[in-house]
């Protein structure tokens, strides 16, 4: 479909630039660039840590997009905190700070990630309203974060934004220093709250049992699990239960640090090492002394960085850049990965020696779809969090809605569930919970399914170039869908595929893969995954049917699988998806079969049963049936 090139979606947009360009200017140009690079590194790190995506960086300004408003605001606050630390030694007029504006709005997104829309405009205007080192947000962001956020806000009045009819109400996020200090007991409560783990399933109970056992020791722990299952929470739980609980918990996003800056970040550097560095800087390893160092996305570390990590893991010794003194940090390591490290090992992507150092005590956190008992308690928890903070009445879901949630396969896991609650509350205001509207358009309830047996090699023992291209296409589409069509960044499709973002974009371009429109029937049916599930169920019923089964008698398994794949590609392409259909037209495919009017009646009832069993909503159900009816003349022999 021609309009599938751009998509519109609700996103939190963060616009930032360095407050006061003159602060950036150092005594020589290289020092200026080094300072700016420092800022950008902090920026990239924090955006990735909160599941955002940097859309563009130009000069001293940055634009980033987030799934969740709270993630965007937390990012802004963490950025300022991190900069304040690295600024400590600089004279007042030279301290680096960002001015940040955040809006939650509709953006239009190109497949390469470029975003446009009113949201961007407003975020930029808010940025202008922020003071140096400050964060300004629009009322939509304010309303969605105020109850769940440990920060205070000041109303900045209404502001007219160019080309926007309604004035934008703006708020300022008060800095820590402007908020009355909290009591010690409050802090304690916060800390405990931050590692509260909500579950009901036996599976997670077992995971916590392992985590508690690990907490009692100082061993290195490796936490494996899909993106969004709560690996960091488990790491924090281990820290909080351990003897190191009063020490720091320091997180390093291994995927976000460029290799050439890794040593600087990790080991620190001495004064004078590079222009503009006027005092010794401790690295993250030292920052974690007497505490826990959490290495997130450890499988995404480039090879040269993997080598550098070995020594500190062995004996916790290291040297700062430009300083020959050997130092020692008393640190417990916890690593986390969304990929199977043992697999990476066999592919040669991960160092064997490092793997053995890291995997002393492995813990696997199961995906949310494997523990549906946890879905209602988690949903209730996120809702109650809102209600408690706002004084609003706690609302509950109907059984049908719960059923719907438990059938969905949650590719984004608990994080996706939390974002869903946020969206539901924004859309529902004070009325009944409009869960159906909040579900992403690809979130119609389909049970989890195994991928199609595409790896089945044809009888001749190899793939033709065209078959191979089809495999690649389907593989990229599957990865893009699982990543919500995010290409770059942690959790993006490039990372899961083990490609660079540039490489993935160029393959997408070569194969003509574009993000489908979110309101296309394709997206509403759950994308390729949803359509494949539907096809397989429909097909299974037809082949097993006493009447219809005769059409498939004597066909090889490979032939049937190929037909199923053709049907998936056909349905995907006619509903607005990115697949390529390479089969015959419907008349040519069915003419020789002599399908009668009676067969069509049976087919129609099978179609209805399938739609029913997959809880496809009414609107999509009608569209699918209508579409099938429109083909009747091509399929049956009149
Ligand atoms: C709207 C309804 C239907 C659609 C969209 C559809 C779609 C397709 C597609 C895409 C193919 C593959 C074409 C190719 O091999 O190049 C195919 C083949 C086939 N279809 Fe259908 N079909 C429909 C209804 C039916 C019905 C009602 C029957 C039988 C009761 C049927 C039986 C078959 C068989 C046996 C083949 C394999 C033909 C061969 O390879 O010689 N189809 N169909």
CATH superfamily of the largest domain: P-loop containing nucleotide triphosphate hydrolases
Strand content: 5-15%
Number of contiguous helices: 26
CATH C-level of the largest domain: Alpha Beta
CATH topology of the largest domain: Rossmann fold
Task: Give a written overview of the molecule.
The relative contact order is 0.08. Helices cover 47% and strands 14% of the residues. The protein has 4 domains: 2-176, 2-Layer Sandwich (Alpha-Beta Plaits), CATH 3.30.70.1230; 186-366, 3-Layer(aba) Sandwich (Rossmann fold), CATH 3.40.50; 372-438, Helicase, Ruva Protein, domain 3, CATH 1.10.8; 465-635, Globins (Globin-like), CATH 1.10.490.10. Helix 14 packs across helix 16 (413-428) and helix 25 (597-613) runs antiparallel to helix 26. Strands 1, 2, 3, 4, 5, 6, 7 and 8 form an 8-stranded mixed sheet that branches. The protein starts with 6 loop residues before the first strand and ends with a helix. With 638 residues, it is an alpha/beta fold. The chain is globular, with a radius of gyration of 27 Å. Strand 7 (153-159) and strand 8 form a beta hairpin. The longest helix has 21 residues, at 29-49. The structure holds protoporphyrin IX containing FE. Protoporphyrin IX containing FE binds at residues 548, 551-552, 563, 566-567, 570, 583-584, 586, 589-590, 593, 595, 599-600, 603, 628, 631, 635.
């Amino acid at each position: 479909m021609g309009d599938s090139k751009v998509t519109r979606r609700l996103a939190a947009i963060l616009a930032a630039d360095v407050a006061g360009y003159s602060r950036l200017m150092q005594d020589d140009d290289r020092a200026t660039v080094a300072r700016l690079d420092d800022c950008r590194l902090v920026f990239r790190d924090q955006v990735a840590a909160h599941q955002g995506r940097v859309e563009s960086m130009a000069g001293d300004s940055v634009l980033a997009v987030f799934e969740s408003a709270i993630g965007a605001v937390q990012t802004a606050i963490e950025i300022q905190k991190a900069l304040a630390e690295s600024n400590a030694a600089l004279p007042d007029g030279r301290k680096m700070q960002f001015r940040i504006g955040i809006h939650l709005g509709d953006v239009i997104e190109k497949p390469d990630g470029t975003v446009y829309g009113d949201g961007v405009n407003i975020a930029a205007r808010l940025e202008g309203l922020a003071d140096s080192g400050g964060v300004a947000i629009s009322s939509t962001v304010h309303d969605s974060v105020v109850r769940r956020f440990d920060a205070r806000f000041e109303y900045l009045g209404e502001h007219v934004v160019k080309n926007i009819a309604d004035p934008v109400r703006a708020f300022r996020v008060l800095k820590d220093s402007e908020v009355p200090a909290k009591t010690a007991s409050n802090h304690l409560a916060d800390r405990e709250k931050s590692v509260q783990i909500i579950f009901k399933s036996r599976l997670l109970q077992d995971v916590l049992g392992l985590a508690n056992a690990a907490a009692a020791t100082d061993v290195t722990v490796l936490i494996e699990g899909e993106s969004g299952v709560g690996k960091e929470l488990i790491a924090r739980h281990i820290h909080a239960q351990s003897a190191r609980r009063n020490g720091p918990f320091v997180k390093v996003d291994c995927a976000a640090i460029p290799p050439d800056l890794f040593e600087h970040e990790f080991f620190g550097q001495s004064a004078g090492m590079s222009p503009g560095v006027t005092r010794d800087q401790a690295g993250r390893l030292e920052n974690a002394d007497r505490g826990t160092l959490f290495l997130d996305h450890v499988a995404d570390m480039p090879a040269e960085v993997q080598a550098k990590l070995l020594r500190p893991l062995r004996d916790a010794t290291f040297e700062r850049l430009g300083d020959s003194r050997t130092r020692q940090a008393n640190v417990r390591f916890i690593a986390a990965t969304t990929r199977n490290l043992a697999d990476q090992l066999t592919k040669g992507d991960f160092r064997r020696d490092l793997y053995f150092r890291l995997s002393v005590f492995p813990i696997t956190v199961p995906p949310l779809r494997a523990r549906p008992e946890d879905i209602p308690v988690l949903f209730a928890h996120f809702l109650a969090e809102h209600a408690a903070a706002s004084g609003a009445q706690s609302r509950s879901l109907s059984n049908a809605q719960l059923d719907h949630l438990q059938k969905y396969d949650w590719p984004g896991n608990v994080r996706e569930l939390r974002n869903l609650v946020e969206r539901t509350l924004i859309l529902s205001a004070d009325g009944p919970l409009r869960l159906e509207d909040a579900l992403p358009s690809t979130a119609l309830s389909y049970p989890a399914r195994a991928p199609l047996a595409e790896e089945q090699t044809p009888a001749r023992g190899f793939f033709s170039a065209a078959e191979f291209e089809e495999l690649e296409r389907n593989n990229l589409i599957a990865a893009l869908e699982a990543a919500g069509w995010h290409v770059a960044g942690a959790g993006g499709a490039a990372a899961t595929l083990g490609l660079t973002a540039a490489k993935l974009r160029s393959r997408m371009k070569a194969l003509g893969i574009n993000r489908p429109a979110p309101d296309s029937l394709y997206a509403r049916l759950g994308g390729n995954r949803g359509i494949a599930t539907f096809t397989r169920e429909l097909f299974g019923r037809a082949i097993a049917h006493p009447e219809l089964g005769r059409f498939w008698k004597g066909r090889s398994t490979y032939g049937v699988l190929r037909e199923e794949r053709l049907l998936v590609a056909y349905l995907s392409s006619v509903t607005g998806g990115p697949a390529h259909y390479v089969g015959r037209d419907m008349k040519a495919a069915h003419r020789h079969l002599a399908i009668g009017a009676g067969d069509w009646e049976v087919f129609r009832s099978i179609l209805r049963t399938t739609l029913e069993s997959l809880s496809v909503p009414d609107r999509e159900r009608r569209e699918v049936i209508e579409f099938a009816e429109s083909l009747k003349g091509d399929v049956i022999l009149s």
